[in-house]
Write a structure and sequence with these properties.
The protein is mainly beta and 195 residues long. It has one helix and 13 strands, in the order βαββββββββββββ. The protein starts with a strand and ends in a 15-residue tail after the last strand.
């Protein structure tokens, strides 16, 4: 197993999640609620890339940004699937560094351990753990999930799970739920009168 560890001391500005080529080839966003045309920036204390397992593990105060979407977590694991159209095998030996093994691959899944926070415009989701399934275009927040938007808040307990369908803009919380709704749409910047 080839394992590459890279320490990021001052690093904000990793302009790619693992490899620009792998991310740029995808039609959709890498982060939930992200813009597919925007670069992905990840800031973390450490990155470990596992070529054989096709995964990258960021740890230590992870902040990932794409467009108007931001994800924060203690640990962020990105799982790739090989792109069968590329016909490529492992490229880690090509001298391209930690990201080289991801070239020709696609992000399949992102797993975050917490606490986890996902922010998109006025919408904020939190939980103990988070999973983003790219093929389903769904975010799962597991354990104490909270979804808030413009002052309205929906919370689940420690055994609850929030499932947010980004395609249909729908959220569902399973388990015990507590909700607070603010009359008139709450305090949302999009509700402020134009000057």
């Amino acid at each position: 197993m080839k394992r590459v560890a890279i320490g990021f001391g001052l690093g904000f500005g990793l302009a790619v999640l693992i490899a620009n080529a792998a991310l740029a080839q995808r039609a959709g966003p890498v982060l939930p609620g992200g813009n597919s045309k925007s670069p992905v920036n990840v800031d973390a204390a450490k990155l470990e890339y596992f070529d054989k397992e096709q995964k990258a593990v960021y740890s230590g105060g992870v902040v990932a940004r794409q467009g108007e979407a931001t994800m924060r977590a203690s640990t962020l694991t990105v799982i790739f699937e090989r792109d069968p159209a590329s016909g490529e095998g492992s490229t880690a030996s090509s001298g391209g560094g930690a990201g080289a093994g991801a070239t020709g691959n696609q992000v399949k899944r992102i797993e975050a351990t917490g606490p986890v926070t996902v922010v998109e415009k006025e919408r904020v989701g939190t939980g103990d753990r988070g999973i983003y399934e790219r093929a389903e275009n769904k975010v799962y927040l597991i354990g104490n999930p909270t979804l808030s938007e413009c002052g309205n808040v929906v919370k689940g307990d420690k055994d609850s799970r929030l499932i947010y369908d980004l395609t249909n803009n729908r959220a569902q919380i399973t388990g015990r739920v507590s909700s607070t709704f603010v009359p008139g749409g709450g305090n949302c910047s999009t509700n402020k009168p134009a000057r």
